[in-house]
């Protein structure tokens, strides 16, 4: 840490020289008297020879947050020597905003008492960032010399997508063998009555259907539909994105994916995830809290990666995209490669639901809102509707999602239109 | 720190040349100096303030050129102090613009500036006294030798200060 002269030192030195020059030119003693304060001011600077010793700690109120949460950062500065002016700047990444207080303060440090201050960061968008890079400047009282240093102790902070509660979940067309919440046409153990048949030795007496038995003068037992779980694969389109964080189409689809994953996992389903973008990234279907954690962790870094390569879903391992799985594709329908991949999935017999998030509203947010912008958006909305119609004609089930409408309301019509009984595997 | 505090040294800096010898050229130069300083303070930039100080010094030199003989030590000291404070204040405002400055820092800095002003006033008084004593003691031929000695001492002091800072 080497002290360096500040612009003030150069300015005062220049002014001193100018005053002396004018004094010589004009031949007046007053200008030499004027030079005395400037010269003494210059001499008063740079009295420190040793770099200041200082310890700095930074505490965060949480390391894991949800979108829209606030993070309290407390910085404590301590030193064993008095430091008259310490300027501290806590580097804040562009994805967060200083909500309350300031991340740049000027304070004096007394060895007897630690100096501390706090500020609040608003985390509006999902992502990961590091806090802990602090820039320090130690100013001389004269302002003529400054020491600069950097302290980097990265503290990772994760901002997870906001998970909206979803009650209207589309029912999968096919079920798996594990126990779950969907009524399967398969008869066995369950609570949903299905059929009756004559009693055979070994049947449980509590399954005897007394009304049918009395009518037929023979013992009958009730058979029940099995309750099974399903595989759900969330397919996220990261080929294209429009709008600005935290309201870009990708942010909206990520939020929807997190909400759907959470809701399906709560129903004991196995949920998997495939990121369909510049490269394919996936998580095998699974269930439970660990899977929920893995899914949100994998959704966190989702971003567009430009590539000319067309990702091929048929190259995915079968366990990643099981044939009986319900595939929910989340897309703004901006890239034809994704649409083609979905049409291909439907042709291969997959049960696909396309949750199409409108790209018009997120784009409108970042426009100035002029008449021309409005007209362009209206034209684009019409084009988008035409594209929706084309995709629908290819046999895809589409849920059209305009961001101002809650996701639950968008999914409700799908719940009604889907079969009540899931098909046998 | 309130930027209006910078108005005080600007006022002194403009008033001393006008007090010394008012003329159209001095008024124009000082008006330009005030304008530049005000812009620099307002925009938190040291460059215009330095330029304003340069113009103000030039205006003072012009005023002295047309003024009567006789040395105005008090006016010159006030002008020099105003220059220094203006530079200090504008630089303080510039470098901490947008930051939260603790009240104790401003209090300590103000105390430092007042103490330094007192020291400078004392030094000027001492130098003036020493100059008067020397002028009465040393014959006219020896004044050049004394002035030369002063230059050598000042140069040695500057070299020493420079080497001490570098170490």
What does this molecule look like?
The complex is a heterodimer of chains A (425) and B (167). Chain A is 29% helix and 33% strand. Chain A is an alpha/beta fold. Chain A is built from 9 helices and 19 strands. The mean pLDDT of chain A is 90. Chain A is elongated and about 130 Å long. In chain B, 81% of the residues lie in helices and 1% in strands. Chain B contains 6 helices and 1 strand; from the N terminus they run ααααβαα. In chain B, α1 packs parallel to α3. The longest helix of chain B has 35 residues, at 103-137. The relative contact order of chain B is 0.10.
Topology of this structure?
The complex is a heterodimer of chains A (425) and B (167).
Chain A: E1 4-5, H1 7-26, H2 29-43, E2 55-60, E3 64-66, E4 69-78, E5 83-90, E6 97-100, E7 104-109, E8 115-123, E9 127-139, E10 145-160, E11 179-188, E12 192-198, H3 210-216, E13 220-228, E14 231-237, H4 249-266, E15 270-276, E16 280-286, H5 289-299, E17 326-331, H6 336-347, E18 351-357, H7 360-366, H8 371-393, E19 397-401, H9 407-417
Parallel strand pairs in A: 3-10, 14-15, 14-17, 17-18, 18-19
Antiparallel strand pairs in A: 1-10, 2-4, 4-8, 5-7, 5-9, 6-8, 9-10, 11-13, 12-13, 15-16
Chain B: H1 7-20, H2 24-42, H3 46-66, H4 73-95, E1 100-101, H5 103-137, H6 143-166
Helix pairs in contact in B: 1-2, 1-3, 1-4, 2-3, 3-4, 4-5
């Amino acid at each position: 840490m080497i002290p360096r002269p500040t612009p003030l030192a150069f300015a005062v030195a220049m002014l001193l020289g100018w005053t002396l020059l004018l004094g010589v030119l004009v031949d007046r003693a007053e200008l030499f008297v004027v030079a005395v304060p400037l010269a003494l001011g210059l001499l008063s600077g740079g009295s420190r020879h040793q770099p200041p010793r200082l310890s700095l700690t930074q505490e965060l109120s949480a390391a894991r947050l949800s979108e829209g949460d606030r993070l309290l950062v407390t910085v404590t500065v301590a030193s064993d020597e008095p430091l008259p002016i310490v300027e501290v700047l806590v580097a804040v990444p562009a994805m967060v905003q200083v909500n309350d207080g300031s991340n740049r303060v000027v304070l004096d440090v007394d060895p007897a008492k630690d100096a501390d201050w706090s500020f609040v960061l608003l985390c509006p968008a999902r992502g990961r960032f590091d806090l802990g890079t602090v820039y320090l400047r130690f100013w001389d009282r004269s302002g003529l010399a400054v020491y600069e240093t950097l302290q980097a102790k990265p503290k990772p902070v994760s901002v997870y997508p906001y998970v909206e509660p979803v009650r209207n979940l589309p029912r999968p067309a096919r079920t798996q063998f594990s126990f779950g919440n969907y009524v399967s046409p398969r008869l066995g153990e369950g609570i949903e009555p299905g059929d009756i048949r004559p009693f055979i030795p070994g049947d449980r007496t509590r399954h005897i259907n007394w009304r049918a038995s009395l009518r037929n003068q023979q013992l009958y037992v009730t058979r029940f539909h099995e309750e099974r779980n399903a595989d759900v694969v969330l397919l996220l389109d990261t080929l294209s994105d429009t709008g600005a964080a935290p309201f870009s189409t990708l942010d909206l689809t990520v939020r929807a994916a997190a909400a759907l994953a959470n809701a399906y996992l709560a129903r004991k389903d196995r949920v998997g995830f495939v990121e369909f973008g510049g490269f394919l990234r996936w998580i095998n279907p699974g269930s439970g809290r660990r899977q929920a954690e893995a899914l949100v962790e994998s959704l966190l870094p989702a971003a567009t990666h430009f590539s000319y390569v067309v990702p091929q879903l048929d190259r995915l391992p079968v366990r990643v995209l099981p044939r009986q799985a319900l595939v929910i594709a989340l897309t703004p329908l901006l890239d034809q490669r994704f649409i083609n991949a979905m049409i291909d999935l439907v042709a291969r017999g997959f049960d696909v639901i396309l949750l199409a998030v409108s790209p018009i509203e997120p784009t409108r947010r970042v426009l100035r809102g002029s008449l021309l912008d409005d007209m362009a958006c209206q034209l684009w909305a019409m084009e988008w509707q035409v594209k929706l119609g084309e995709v629908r004609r290819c046999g895809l089930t589409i849920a059209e999602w305009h961001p101002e409408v809650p996701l639950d309301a968008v999914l409700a019509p799908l719940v009604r239109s889907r079969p009540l009984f899931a098909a046998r595997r | 720190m309130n930027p209006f505090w910078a108005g005080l040294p600007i006022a002194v800096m403009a008033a001393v040349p006008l007090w010394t010898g008012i003329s159209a050229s001095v008024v124009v130069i000082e008006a330009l100096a005030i304008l530049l300083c005000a812009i620099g303070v307002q925009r938190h930039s040291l460059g215009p303030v330095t330029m304003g100080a340069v113009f103000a010094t030039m205006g003072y030199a012009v005023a002295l050129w047309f003024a009567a003989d006789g040395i105005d030590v008090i006016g010159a000291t006030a002008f020099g102090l105003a220059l220094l404070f203006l530079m200090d204040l504008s630089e303080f405002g510039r470098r901490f613009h947008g930051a939260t400055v603790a009240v104790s820092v401003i209090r300590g800095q103000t105390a430092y500036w007042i103490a330094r002003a007192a020291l400078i006033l004392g030094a000027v008084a001492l130098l003036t006294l020493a100059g008067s004593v020397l002028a009465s003691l040393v014959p006219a031929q020896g004044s050049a030798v004394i002035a030369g000695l002063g230059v050598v001492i000042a140069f040695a002091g500057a070299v020493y200060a420079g080497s001490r800072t570098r170490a």
